[in-house]
Write a structure and sequence with these properties.
CATH class of the largest domain: Alpha Beta
Helix content: 25-40%
CATH superfamily of the largest domain: Type I PLP-dependent aspartate aminotransferase-like (Major domain)
Strand content: 15-25%
Number of domains: 2
Radius of gyration: 20 Å
Strand order of the largest sheet: 2-8-7-6-5-3-4
Length: about 350
Amino acid sequence: MNAFRPEVLALRAYFMEEPPLPVKANQNESPWDWPEELKREALERLAATPFHRYPAFRGSRLASLLCERWGLPEGSCLLGNGSNELLAALFTACLGEGRSGLIPSPSFSLYRQLILLARGEVREVALSENMDYDLDPWVQALEDFSPAVALVGSPNNPTGSLLPRSGLERLLEAAPGIVAVDEAYGEFSMEPSAASLLPGRDNLVVLRTFSKAWGSAALRLGYLLASPAVAEQVAKALLPYNVSPLALTLGEAALTRREIFEGRVRDLLRSRAELSERLGRIEGLRVYASEANFILVRLERWEAAEVHSALKARGVLVRDVSAHPALRGCLRISVGTPAENDAVLEALKEVVS
């Protein structure tokens, strides 16, 4: 059967399945579930939701709250079944035969797949040896390839590196098309959100999610911020009623109690600093600076796959990212509770000692 496009047949579906283990430090989730009090409040909101009616067409109330949160005009926010759906819609709206998407390398593996599914050509710019953004090659790539979309993860996954504000402004000035900033981990950075640059700019798109800092990965809820004119075009690539009213309701509940999640982010930042410092004491381990809720480490004396398996045998699950040539020997470790971080450290020291 030849029904499928060759580029689709050549792809490997994004998939991850790991056994449940006592310490889960592989998916960059929040280590804390919602408080029981907030869950009860959310259930009351759900009970008032009419299940027999379609939701607001674009999740208008939550979208309005997010526009207000970021000081943007109505029509600046699109909601998605996770921010990846919105990224796919952006690529669908902008790419196609003869058009390219520019991404960092290494970066989130789904970026490449979504560009190819949108019939675009993937162009990449390598991060520096320290896993930082090097702006000169980016500006050169914008000139050489004239991409319809230049996408940066800031902080970038799996490196944790940040594109500074000055660098983003330089890209915005040089880009012939859209500059999209994936801020899935933005709450864990001290750098102001790129959303503050949005008013008056039609070539900037910012993507955010409730999955990480908001402790709501199960909701599958993300959002896109852009000028109303840009959002209108991206919306054409979204299916009607793409977000469940249950997720919309729970998203509103989370926003009303943002102090809970902001306090947890502060706690996690302190844990990140401590975990990074303690990892750095392990001989033969290179620790990269991170602005996210995870830390990238390079094993200089051991194979990443072997260490990954040995950690699993000790009840600790981290992410083996060593398949990428620039990440040979690398593992990505999610920052967890203090007890989880202790468990990761003890298991790792036992494996590499």
